[in-house]
Amino acid sequence: MITSTQARPRAYPATAPLPSLLTTGLSRGRLEVTTFFREREAVVFIFALPAVLLLLLGSIFNSEHVSVPGVTTGQLYAAGMIAGGIMATSFQYLGISVASERDQGMLKRLYGTPLPPAAYFIGKIIQVFVCLIAEVALLMIVGVAFYHLHLPATPGKWWTLVWVCLLGGTACALLGLAASSLARSSRSASPVITLPFLVLEFISGIFVPFNSVPRGLQDVAAVFPLKWMAQGLRSVFLPPQAAALEPAHSFETGRVALVLAVWIAAGLVLCIRTFRWQQRR
Amino acid sequence: MSNDIAVRVDGLRKRYGNTCAVDGVELEIGRGEVFALLGPNGAGKTTTVEILEGFRRRDGGGAEVLGEDPGRAGRAWRSRIGIVLQLATAGPELTVREMVRHFAGYYPRPRDPDEVIALVGLDEQAGQRVGALSGGQARRVDVALGIVGRPELLFLDEPTTGFDPQARRQFWELVRALAAEGVTILLTTHYLEEAEALAGRLAVLAGGRVVATGTPAALGGAGRPTRVSWDTADGRRTVRTPTPTQLVADLARQAGGEVPGLTVTRPTLEDTYLELIGDPA
Ligand SMILES: Nc1ncnc2c1ncn2[C@@H]1O[C@H](COP(=O)(O)OP(=O)(O)OP(=O)(O)O)[C@@H](O)[C@H]1O
Ligand SMILES: [Mg+2]
What is the DSSP secondary structure assignment for residue B14, as one 8-state letter? Predict the structure, then answer.
């Protein structure tokens, strides 16, 4: 067994080039996606939970009346829960998983290899968007099957769906990376990340229709991205007259894009300033 | 920069608050050497090694590893070193083979992943998830990930902690085989017989300082006073002497025959070590 360590002739030239950013980034991405779908906690609490909640909330409140004709509570919940699912697969999963990678020394181990740091982040981006697209598809299927959710009717609405996923997912992913540094250990990561996420879901129109949220809390929610993602998605999935339910009586899609872009910029700055490869002890 | 020196450290210093973890360490390790760092818990071994690996910043002194400053070296330098940290876990959801293959992809001239798995004795566990391995088996994954990049210089921080005796012997064979290929190895350990079995030279660290350096033989026996003990009418006497043969001959002449209860002991590495680190025993 040991004799096999004798340097056997290999095809490598003495000055073989370092693997490229693209190769290593894609390899990280494949590894991250595999890991996500093998983790029972991730599949149950991140991936499946929004669909389960949609089924529960949708059926409990389905009989509630919506003041605008042609709009059902189920549709409101479905559109909102898609925003919640985007934030779960980006903010919540990244926040928890990166905190535990840091705490358990995985990030330190990577830092000690010639892996380009950017490849690690490319891997995370791939993982987030693969999971996010699967999540949105799952919730759309549940919505269409049970809650009269209409698929986007025009290319314009599809385009809105795409950019809300892209901007919202990016903003939440960056905030998740930044928030991961708040957790002091793997075990504290889950509560530290999940608590603010749950609060946001309550006040941003995910668990409770936004027009039933008290005015003061609506204003708090308006500071964060989730409310705007949900609003953008209502513009995609609900009929035009549902705009009357919005605080501004309009879906304000321009403002949605603007707020999300600002959060991406802020998240990027936060990440660059706070990201650490080693746990502080 | 000299090509025969792999690691050069002088006056290395690192403080944590009021404690001086490393307090003026001097080391020089030649290419192809196997060098062991010994010392009690908290002596500063990990701190020293992690400064050389580029994980921690030094507060003072010089450090040169493979001709570069480890605090500034880049990817190409990282591809030439291998690191086995004292504490680290690998992604628990991935199998041993997936993990080793993935890490091989970070390096320009990796070893064959299956060969590496065989070298650390994990062929039977190759398809198992890392999270399902025993402690000692998981440690072997750390070693596999440290050597898969075909390093010129390998850092091993307490690599065999948690190994059963057979695994430790197997690991020694692996280290010897790597050394035979010309790999420079810096190893920390609490097992004196490990240092004796593997290292060409060693240094004993205590309180952040090097208290002794030399070959295991020099530190262990040759040149150090030998202990001669025998029984007298007033009880047992012990004398340390650089000339034990002379003393025994004198004793024999005085006793006019057998010296009662005579023992002559050369100090073992362990005796010297305990003396060096100030153990009263
Ligand atoms: N990150 C840190 N923050 C504060 N103190 C530290 C830190 N790392 C090490 N120390 C202190 O520095 C000293 C040396 O620690 P180090 O880990 O280098 O010892 P060691 O020789 O590796 O010990 P062991 O045999 O237990 O692994 C210890 O007193 C330790 O408490
Ligand atoms: Mg240590």
Answer: E
Report chain B residues whose CB lies below 8 A from the CB of A27. Answer: 102, 105
What gap in Å lies between CA A196 and CA A176, rounded to an integer? 11
Tens of pLDDT, residue by residue over A32-80, are 999 999 998 889 899 999 999 999 998 888 777 788 888 888 999 999 9
Confidence check: pLDDT of A4 > 60: no
Average pLDDT, stretch B146-157? 96
Please check whether residue B206 is in contact with residue B200, taking contact to mean a CB–CB distance below 8 angstroms.
no
Which ligand is closest in space to the CA of residue B38? 1
- Residues A129, A114, A279, CA angle at the centre, nearest 5°? 70
- Worst-scoring range by mean pLDDT, A108-112, A145-149, A276-280, B63-67? A276-280
Q: Give the other-Cβ count within 10 Å of B278's Cβ.
A: 10
Q: Is B106 on the interface with A (CB under 8 A)?
A: yes
Q: How far apart are CA B19 and CA B17, in angstroms?
A: 6
Are B55 and A116 a contacting pair at CB < 8 A?
A: no
**What length is written for chain B?**
281
Locate the ligand 1 atom nearest the alpha carbon of residue A280 and give its number.
1
Mean pLDDT across B240-246: 86
Residues 6+ apart with CB under 8 A from A216: none
CA of B140 from ligand 2 middle (Å) equals 18
- Which atom of ligand 1 approaches the CA of B48 most closely? 18
Please indicate whether residue B85, judged by its CB atom, sits closer than 6 Å to ligand 1: no
Q: What is the Cα–Cα distance from B207 to B58, expressed in whole angstroms?
A: 16
Q: Which helix (H) or strand (E) holds B19?
A: strand B19-30
Range list of H helices, chain B:
45-52, 75-78, 96-104, 113-119, 135-147, 165-180, 192-198, 216-220, 244-255, 269-276
Residues of chain A contacting B87 with CB distance shorter than 8 Å: 105
B105:A31 CB<8 A: no
Across-strand partners of B210? B205
Per-residue confidence (pLDDT) for residue B2, from 0 to 100 = 52
CA–CA dist B73, B66 (Å, integer): 10
State the pLDDT at residue A68: 84
Query: Which residue, B137, B138, B97, B133, is CA-closest to B117?
Result: B97
User: Residue B131: pLDDT above 70?
Assistant: yes
Using most ligand atoms within 8 A of CB, pick from B20, B45, B192 the residue to mutate for ligand 1: B45
CB distance B44 to ligand 1 below 6 Å: yes
